[in-house]
Amino acid sequence: MRTVAVVGGGLIGTSIGMALAVRGTAVHVLDRDPVRQAEAAERCGGVAGPPRERADLAVLAVPPGQIARVLREQQIRGLARCYTDVGSAKESVQRAAVAAGCTLEYFVGGHPMAGSEQSGPHAARAELFVGRPWVLTPDRCTGAAALVAALDLVEACGARLVVMAAAEHDRAVALTSHAPHVVASALASALGGAPQEVVDLCGAGIRDTTRIAAGETGLWSDILGSNAGAVAAALEPLVDELTAAVAQLKQAAAASPGAPRPVLADLLDRGGEGRARIMTVQPTPSVRLPRPVASFV
Predict the structure, then answer these.
(1) Which of the listed residues 21, 93, 133, 276 has the most CB atoms within 10 Å of its CB?
(2) CATH classification of 3-166+284-296, choosing from 3.40.50.720, 3.30.360.10, 1.25.40.10, 3.90.1150.10?
């Protein structure tokens, strides 16, 4: 790719721009906030504003609820030949894009599974995506040109390609990302109302558990709303686990003095097994799919 337009100068958009600039791609950054646009462009060593001619690819790095509108606007404008996004919800974006009258042949959904509780261009890193999964969600409307451009983007950023259906992606990230954010926020909220002498006792464990609760409220509210059904489904089993845990703990608290009180052993065992499984996942090198790519579209 010779020219890429990044729409949205936040953490992800700027990190993409930085990664592409290292590879010699000309990067143009567009953002409705002129200050952030200028800062992101400077971080990328790119240009603030659109290219004079159509870019090879436009990356829509805006919240999921805005993607369809921005896609439609930029397609009418003729910003790029092909388009992809980096939103963490896919089905709702596809439906909104259809309703907005977007040309879906030149668009493929994407989601790099990398980020930070920090936000803004100042937190961006060119190596943010190296070895990380990057999901693409082509469907029967996706044209080969759009998919090839998105594949080039994934490879240029050093990410690991994963191809999924939109609904499958949304269920997966609801369990691995969105529901954990809600849980972390609920836990951090409970601690936020505690007396200072209690907060002073917080150690590394609670800091690690609540780290992601520091994410930007506006962005995460949009993300959760854009994947609401899948997030609710992912939270229901967790609520059942906690309800059962509360019942066991109350029963243990009411037991006679001196009675043995081992509780929640099954949950703790399963938690340990789940943690071990998470920690055994090893990043694999970026995968380059052979062309032609028509089997995915």
Answers:
(1) 93
(2) 3.40.50.720
